[in-house]
What does this fold into?
Amino acid sequence: MSQATASPPASPPVAADAELALRAQAVETALTDVKGMPIDHRTRAVALKDAVEAFHKAGLTQIVRTLKADPRGMELLLELVDDPNVYALFAMHGIVKADLRTRVARVVETVRPYTQSHGGDVELVDVKDGTVYVKMAGACNGCSMSAVTLRNGVEEALREQCPEITAIEVVPNEPTAAVIPLVALQRGGANAGWLSGPAVTDLTEGKPFRMELPNGKSLVLLRFENQISAFHNACAHQGLPIDGGMVDMESRTITCPWHGFRFDCLSGECLTAPQAQLEQVPVRVDDGRVLVRPA
It folds into this structure.
């Protein structure tokens, strides 16, 4: 009797998660190549992409509906969404929908290569009560015909992909009165470098809280019972904001809404790719208010 050959050990999850990042990068590279094609070739390529995505979305939507109709199926669906590959796939087809700010930020990022190729740029400032606030720079700023055309292109993309948006405001780039950062006023004392954040009662357990910084960047704060953690609001994968991510209360993880990377909410450790970790910020609580030291 021949001796049975042992099966090779399964690949560790890290390998699969690393492949997710490579696949996401490959998609982005291909889309960038398409944008550089002549207009007629680009139109046909985009039409093919849209047709394939519509075909896949119809099948995926039916699968989700069938699973939701059965208690066990719903349980399996929730388990599937925990997988970064499945979450990224569902998010791409709009089956799992991110919050409005995250979707607006995603649209802005997709139109930036176009505006930059024409000597301009666009930056998301805020989303509030259905209104998007953006800054335009370079050729996008001013009253020239090219500036109007580029701004109209940005507005059209936002209205098409985020129908909840009711207005788009361009924040002026004119000089404003100087603001002295709080950190500068605090130098030399026990509170040096600490910035006052939200009240502890403003933090909902398991819900990301976005805290804007004086330098235009932001932090994401997370609370679980009596533990509060703060990180720079940038996914370790590509630096995109993570405050719109989905939080799993049981595992205490947050999933990046862009490419599905999962992070430990308390330590910032990346469970998808161990070499990528959120940049943690010191936190303390003083008289019911959260203080952070981002520097």
Observations:
- The chain has a mean pLDDT of 77.
- The chain is about 40% helix and 20% strand.
